[in-house]
């Protein structure tokens, strides 16, 4: 079964994505949501949960923040709110939070396991499936050859990023603020500032960096676009696809989502060929932010080349 999931930056964009044919909307609030395009209020979360169900869609709430003690103090009331709001899934990566979810019968919240770069093999995914995870999000760093090898061993569905940015580093430390303190300047350090890092001897490096209440986040040089690989993914059994719009705002992200919806429908009809995938791929590149690179990430990497 195909599942197309997309992040949303507003209630209005969530509605547009659902109307476009996206199956699941991912949102979250400021305190517990990690690396999202927008922080939603609890009222908005409840509203979108109702609207998603009326539209026969699903609402997924990201609760993937690293749960330091101060965050854990309020987690039970937040989980109770999400359960009362009847959200369909929550995204979780912190083992302490999984312990809270599974230690008793207080919560009945299906969760998707997402520990970023740690989710790289079937044994780990199946372990968390036995603990209670209904699905898992595969690390962006897993090449297709390894994906094919693990598919027959997976006990729960796995979601693959087919469009969007890849986080390569997170630190709880406020690294940008520490730097500004050192040079004695007051500067903006949020995502909208559009800051980048460059390695000293590699002029083409272009790592996005921003700071928020969860710490400092650094992203890969290029964003991922697997439009040309969707047939391969489907043939290998990977039909849960994720679109991340953290750096692709507004209507452009909705239009990109429509292209993936079109590709999904063509695959289901058995009519998605190289020509059609090339056409949709070229349209994505015109909609993708001009300040950001785009490629297929680790998809084509030969696992034998990793030393």
Note the topology:
Layout: E1 3-7, H1 11-20, E2 24-27, H2 42-54, E3 58-62, H3 69-72, H4 75-84, E4 89-92, H5 95-102, E5 111-113, H6 122-131, E6 135-137, H7 144-151, E7 158-164, E8 167-171, H8 175-183, E9 195-197, E10 207-212, E11 215-219, E12 222-225, H9 230-235, E13 240-243, H10 250-269, H11 274-287, E14 293-295
Parallel strand pairs: 1-2, 1-13, 2-3, 3-4, 4-5, 5-6, 6-7, 7-13, 12-14
Antiparallel strand pairs: 7-12, 8-11, 9-10, 10-11
Helix pairs in contact: 1-2, 1-10, 10-11
Architecture overview:
This protein is an alpha/beta fold. The protein has 2 domains: about 5-165 and about 225-305, TIM Barrel (Alpha-Beta Barrel); about 170-220, no CATH class. It contains 11 helices and 14 strands. The protein has helices at about 10-20, 40-55, 70, 75-85, 95-100, 120-130, 145-150, 175-185, 230-235, 250-270, 275-285, and strands spanning about 5, 25, 60, 90, 110-115, 135, 160-165, 165-170, 195, 205-210, 215-220, 220-225, 240-245, 295. The strands form 2 sheets. The protein has an 8-stranded parallel beta barrel with strand order 1-2-3-4-5-6-7-13, surrounded by 5 helices. The protein is globular and about 50 Å long.
- Give the low-pLDDT segments: none
Computed CA radius of gyration, to the nearest angstrom: 19 Å
* Fraction of helical residues: 25-40%
Shape: globular
CA(first)-CA(last) distance = 36 Å
Please identify the top-level CATH class of the largest domain.
Alpha Beta
Percent strand equals: 15-25%
What does the main sheet amount to?
Answer: 8 strands, parallel, barrel
Task: Work out the oligomeric state of the chains in this entry.
Answer: single chain
Q: Count of helical segments?
A: 11
Here the CATH topology of the largest domain equals TIM Barrel
Q: How many domains make up the coordinates?
A: 2
